[in-house]
Specification:
The complex is a heterodimer of chains A (502) and B (315). In chain A, helix 14 packs antiparallel against helix 15. By secondary structure, chain A is of the alpha+beta class. Chain A is built from 16 helices and 21 strands. Chain A is globular. Chain B contains twelve helices and no strands. The radius of gyration of chain B is 24 Å and the shape is globular. Chain B is mostly helical. Classes of the chains: A alpha+beta (502), B mainly alpha (315). Chains A and B meet through helix 6 and helix 13 of A and helix 2, helix 3, helix 5, helix 7 and helix 11 of B.
Chain lengths: 502, 315
């Protein structure tokens, strides 16, 4: 009996001691370390994942990529897409205790537009001015009609920061960020961790079910999975396709994926400097032949273990913006050879540059052998990413393989790449017809009209083929079964409202 | 002695200058533009121009170098292009982590390498010697990253004894700090242990066959005393040089080990800085490492003199 009571006492003491430690902590493994923790300056994907928990935005997206209210409760377009008015949610507090009102929204948007270090300028370039038209009402006046602005506000450009902190810290805001999201900043150790804790005054606090979130950058996938198995992590983002099977077979883990809004593509140098002067850059039949020689389904199976989706347009086939009249083509070697012949070639030498990671190298080798059957002799040139980027911008390439992470609005996946003055038109494609369609699509507030324009542009681009689209990568996650109520979002962000941990 | 140290330090200055010029030029020769990577996916031209101005990347190269050097002399190593933090602050954060890792790795290397080396020398050409050789050879041949991942799978995932990766400062939580460092330090120390063992063995073999050892044995000293007090102290000289040189190698080896165990140290910072063309950070790191090497060599020379009275007259 005595033994039993000692045991009970010990258990009770243990329970009391353990109680403070019961506060639930979610540990999330990221692929990389975030950069500056300032929504105005940030440029990394992992940074956006952290902000999703820390900084609420004017508007958010739902699982179908539809725009839904967050800090703005309602909005309306007027004057044919040139004025946007938004009603701001009442009673929202920032992490530092300030109240979020129309003035704070104006201050943030102006900061994003004017801070010299800001990376948000191009996202907000259509904004002429932003003003508070009431304590909780904001009016955006645009230089030209641009309905894509709303989609920009679902991301960093629409994250409202605490005005006092932003003013005091300026470009150094990232050292002690203060926003209006469900979790507030606690500490950051470069390349090691970012710690957030539950914000008690969050406007939707009933949905915040964990007390602490820690983000740990772990670049090596094997190590990331080992951490997940040993319980040091609760969730890992962007696990590699080759690990999907082993996650699925682990009874303590759950696998989840979703096709992202981005694309994988090859850029053909059409008019960017002297290196564009080659048969592939000059003759669209050769580009069409190259595209037809690729088996896009097979690439998905071989390189991505079937987790990716084959594609031939800037939007995935699952997107409402995908032109259904241009289905992903099946491989057709005969037709490819015929197109080659029409262009006057039996064989053609091409140099293809790509990033030197395992997945890319494998993917390019598969394509190399596929197109060889149609007569293309592809030489692969592997470079690391910083070099690839500058070569592509400078036009020092013939064919270049790179990815686009994707935007919510279709405009973000196409306009700047193929319009004559597009900021990242590295292929230097210029077709006034395409320009007109894409500019008109940007100006219309009617989705049906926009869809028509994008469909028409897709047809032209599919004919000229300055960019050979290959497919769409998934965002894949491994999650511990202890985590409840989480599902992936199509933008790859990790949303934590309603998520709990046993 | 102080005069000697002073002279050595003065000689180090031109060495450092040459190294910094060399690295500066090498970096600029690398293709790739840090600003493009920094400007974000959209690469807005106005932002790019602003950043180029801010980091003075529009100046001619010699001017950029002189600007940098001027900063260094006044204690300003520049700002990281990637994180906006001062380089010196970054180094100050990362260096202690790697030094802790290096010291622990050195500890593992010594407790494994030196005893086995002595044992192999004493039992020369027996099965013990051969076994020690095999261990050394495999220690050298097993790649760091493979051993690291295998250890994580065994010790953390299967047995659950140690955390799989991560880092805790020794001043915040010493126990956790040591726990997270054991595996990486072992992995890093393992390769060095092999080198250390081979050198200890050959130095000991040479000493053990010299005349004064025969005399010591003839005097009737115990085998322990002969080996430890008479042979080992003399054999220690080349081993110490090696330790100093290996310490530099530790910093280099730390790159892979830190990457695998996600330790936020010097090595990981170096890799990230090179890949993002974070010029100021790479420059700072190289300078810091060069200073480390020079100091370690100096320490080795001083230790020589302290351990070997015969050398004292030469200074």
């Amino acid at each position: 009996m005595k033994k039993l009571s000692t045991l009970t006492a010990a258990l009770l003491a243990g329970a009391f001691l353990a109680f403070p430690a019961m506060a639930s902590e979610l540990r999330i493994g990221l692929n990389d370390d975030a950069d500056v923790l300032d929504p105005a300056q940030s440029r990394t994907f992992v940074g956006r994942i952290v902000y999703t928990a820390m900084c609420d935005k004017l508007v958010d997206i739902d699982e179908n990529m539809k725009i839904v209210p967050q800090l703005a409760t309602e909005w309306a377009w007027s004057e044919e897409g040139k004025v946007l008015t938004m009603k701001i949610r009442d009673g929202v507090k920032f992490h530092d205790g300030e109240t979020l009102d129309a003035a704070a929204v104006v201050a943030t948007i102006e900061r994003n537009m004017t801070l010299p270090e800001s990376r948000r300028k191009s996202e907000l370039s259509s904004v002429e001015k932003v003003e508070a038209t009431g304590p909780l009402e904001v009016k955006f006046t645009l230089k030209t009609a641009d309905v894509t602005l709303l989609a920009q506000l679902t991301d960093r450009a629409g994250m409202i920061v605490a005005p006092k902190v932003a003013k005091e810290l300026g470009a150094n805001f990232g050292s002690k960020p203060s926003c209006a999201g469900p979790f507030k900043f606690v500490e950051r150790i470069q390349q090691d961790r970012i710690v957030l804790e539950k914000f008690a005054d969050y406007w939707d606090k009933d949905k915040v079910l964990v007390d602490k979130v820690t983000y740990l950058p772990i670049p090596d996938t094997t190590v990331k999975l080992a951490n997940l198995r040993s319980g040091d992590l609760d969730m890992a983002e962007r696990i590699s396709a080759s690990d999907a099977e082993s996650v699925k077979s682990d009874s303590n883990l759950t696998y989840a994926d979703v096709i992202g809004p981005g694309y994988m593509a090859m850029y053909v140098n059409i008019g960017n400097g002297p290196r564009a002067d080659n048969p592939l850059g000059k003759d669209k039949r050769l580009r069409q032949a190259f595209s037809l020689a690729i088996d896009r389904e097979a690439i998905g199976q071989i390189v991505f273990e079937g987790t990716s989706k084959a594609g031939n347009q800037p939007y995935p086939p699952t997107s409402p913006w995908f032109n259904q009249n241009l289905p992903v083509p099946a491989r057709d070697i005969e037709k490819a050879k015929q197109l080659m012949k029409e262009a006057g070639y039996e064989t053609l030498d091409i140099e293809l540059q790509h990033a030197n990671n395992t997945t890319q190298t494998q993917m390019m080798q598969v394509i190399q052998s596929m197109v060889a059957e149609a007569g293309f002799n592809v030489t692969l040139k592997a470079t690391e990413f910083a070099t690839l980027l500058s070569e592509q911008t400078a036009g020092n390439y013939q064919l270049s393989r790179s990815d686009w992470s994707g935007r919510i609005d279709p405009d973000g996946n196409i306009h700047q790449f193929v319009t004559c003055k597009g900021g990242i038109n590295d292929v230097k494609y210029c077709n006034p017809e395409v320009d007109k369609l894409l500019n008109d699509a940007r100006a219309s507030t009617d989705d049906a009209v926009r869809k028509e324009k994008y469909d028409a542009a897709s047809v032209l681009l599919n004919e000229d083929m300055p960019i050979i689209y290959l497919g769409h990568q998934p965002y894949a996650y491994a999650i511990s079964n202890k985590v409840k109520g989480w599902k992936p979002s199509p933008d790859g962000m990790i949303r934590l409202l309603g998520v709990s941990k046993d | 002695m102080p005069v000697y140290i002073g002279k050595r330090l003065l000689v180090a200055i031109p060495t450092l200058l040459i190294i910094s010029i060399f690295v500066f030029s090498l970096q600029k020769l690398l293709p790739g533009d840090p600003i493009l990577a920094m400007a974000g996916e959209e690469r807005d031209p106005a932002t790019i121009e602003f950043l180029r101005e801010k980091y003075r990347l529009n100046d001619p190269m010699p001017i950029q170098y002189i600007n940098w050097l001027g900063g260094v002399v006044t204690g300003d190593f520049g700002i990281s292009l990637r994180t906006n933090q001062p380089v010196l602050e970054l180094i100050g954060q990362k260096l202690p982590v790697t030094i802790q890792l290096a010291v622990m790795a050195m500890f593992f290397a010594m407790i494994i390498g030196i005893p086995i080396g002595i044992l192999a020398a004493v039992k020369k050409n027996t099965w013990i010697d051969y076994t020690a050789n095999i261990i050394a050879l495999s220690g050298l041949s097993i790649p760091n990253f493979w051993l690291g991942i295998m250890l994580i799978l065994l010790v953390s995932v299967q047995l659950g004894w140690l955390p799989a990766s991560g880092y805790e400062s020794i001043f915040v939580d010493p126990v956790r700090s040591i726990e997270t460092m054991i595996m990486p330090a072992f992995v890093l120390g393992n390769a060095l242990a092999a080198t250390l063992m081979r050198h200890t063995r050959s130095a000991m073999v040479a000493v053990l066959s010299s005349d004064y050892i025969r005399t010591a044995r003839a005097k009737g000293l115990s085998p322990w005393e002969v080996v430890m007090s008479h042979s080992f102290r003399n054999a220690l000289l080349p081993v110490i040089t090696l330790l100093a040189l290996l310490f530099g190698e530790l910093l280099a080896g730390a790159v892979l080990t830190e990457q695998i165990f996600t330790i936020p140290g010097f090595g990981k910072m170096t890799v990230d800085a090179v890949f993002t063309r974070d010029y100021a950070v790479v420059q700072g790191i190289v300078l810091c490492t060069a200073v480390g090497f020079i100091l370690m060599n100096l320490l080795a020379d001083i230790a020589y003199v302290l351990l070997n009275p015969r050398l004292r007259a030469t200074i």
